[in-house]
Amino acid sequence: MSLEIKIPAVGESITEVTLAQWLKQDGDYVEMDENIAELESDKATFELPAEKAGILKIIAQEGDTLEIGAVVCTIEDGDAPAEGTAKKEEAPAEKPTTTGPAKEETESSDSYAAGTASPAAAKILREKGIDPSTIKGTGKDGRITKEDAEKAQARPAAAKAENTPTTESTTSTPVALAGSRNERREKMTSLRRTIAKRLVTVKNETAMLTTFNEVNMQPIMDLRAKYKDAFKEKHGVGLGFMSFFTKAITMALKEWPAVNARIEENEIVYSDFADISIAVSAPKGLVVPVIRNAESMSLYQIEKEVINLATKARDNKLTIEEMTGGTFTITNGGVFGSMMSTPIINAPQSAILGMHNIVQRPVAENGQVVIRPMMYIALSYDHRTIDGRESVSFLVRVKQLLEDPARLLLEV
Question: Could you report the per-residue pLDDT of 74-101, keeping only the tens digit for each?
């Protein structure tokens, strides 16, 4: 008896997912609750488990967009292969012995059937004439993914001039133009499509404006240099810039609550808590996991949560709940070298703070020109909710707290 495996409901607002990768091959024996595929929604990546033990029969292909409830595969009744079966099939005595081109063709066919490549990847490699055994896969357990196959290039064939007689009918190879002119098309992932749609919506439906300021980072850098070893020894995490910025923002939000608000139809909703979204660059796109109730956290608690969420983002382990419900967003383009930018609001929030790189610049202090590590900060905000006085005052307060970090501890 076969069992249909369908796309499960993964969230109230999610109606379709993309089949990102098969973790098992067609015809494989799978155990109950063993993960057989990776599914990608517009918000997160999650794994599809087998609902019974048996033989996997694949229906949907990698890259397919499937609605909730669609059948992706079936699991047929069947027993696990005996331990000695595989070895018996691989015994040299049972393999036909061939030489020359026929042998090469046989070995190539065997390697494609060996299972190191996903079905979609194997098809691409066959079309390119590439042996999967020469490709190092980046998928789970070294599995060759569709992306690996698309990037793979066939190795140049060995020269045969000495063994091939020259005749008048020999066709000369066209001279290749200098420089590559290859193009490739890749289907947009659900996550990338959603990001694109939301960014355009925000630009079209909000009265977005950006205000700038600069921060002298010397006081924070001096504080970190003095206490970083003791901080790490006591709390087990490093003392980074993100905790200082998060703490400063939560304090400023208490004073300027409109920056922490959002519009819902004809009402403005004010939050008396600060759920801070942290923009993180993940392998499949930009994600914004949320630090809940950041206003009640200490510096070391913020640092631990930032590390936890960033690690989950890199491993595609974030849940939908961990990426929804923020009230304010921080994005750090400085880690990529950005000097200044105008970040786009993370709807339905009303504001986002952009951090940038730290550059040694000459500044005036007490009538003297000195060199200081300076950072530009940018606040993009929705002018429908936040007035100019509130946005500028909020950013000035953040600057004041960062340039005198003792205020963060004393909350003054």
Answer: 999 888 776 555 444 444 444 444 444 4
Contacts 24+ apart (CB under 8 A), 7-10: 7/39, 7/48, 7/66, 7/67, 7/68, 7/69, 7/70, 7/72, 8/48, 8/68, 9/68, 9/69, 10/39, 10/41, 10/44, 10/46, 10/68, 10/320
CA nearest neighbour of 25 among 112, 138, 89, 132:
112
Beta strands 208-216 and 65-67: pairing type? unpaired
Please state, in angstroms and rounded to a whole number, the distance separating the CA atoms of residues 377 and 397.
12
Domains of the chain (ranges; CATH) run 3-76 (2.40.50.100), 96-151 (4.10.320.10), 190-410 (3.30.559.10)
Name the active-site residue from 33, 272, 315, 387.
Answer: 387
More confident: 251 or 47:
251
Q: Is 356 a catalytic residue?
A: no
387 flagged as catalytic: yes
386-390 average pLDDT score: 95
CA atoms within 13 A on the CB side of 144: 27
Catalytic residue from among 110, 229, 315, 383: 383
CA distances from 87 to 77, 93, 95, 269 (A): 23, 12, 12, 66
Among 71, 39, 40, 69, smallest CA distance to 57 is for 71
Both tokens assigned to 325: 């419900």
Confirm if 363 and 372 have CB atoms less than 8 A apart: yes
How many angstroms separate the CA atoms of 230 and 119, rounded?
52
Q: What pTM does this model have? A: 0.63
Taking the C-alpha atoms of residue 75 and residue 345, their distance in angstroms, rounded to an integer, is 45
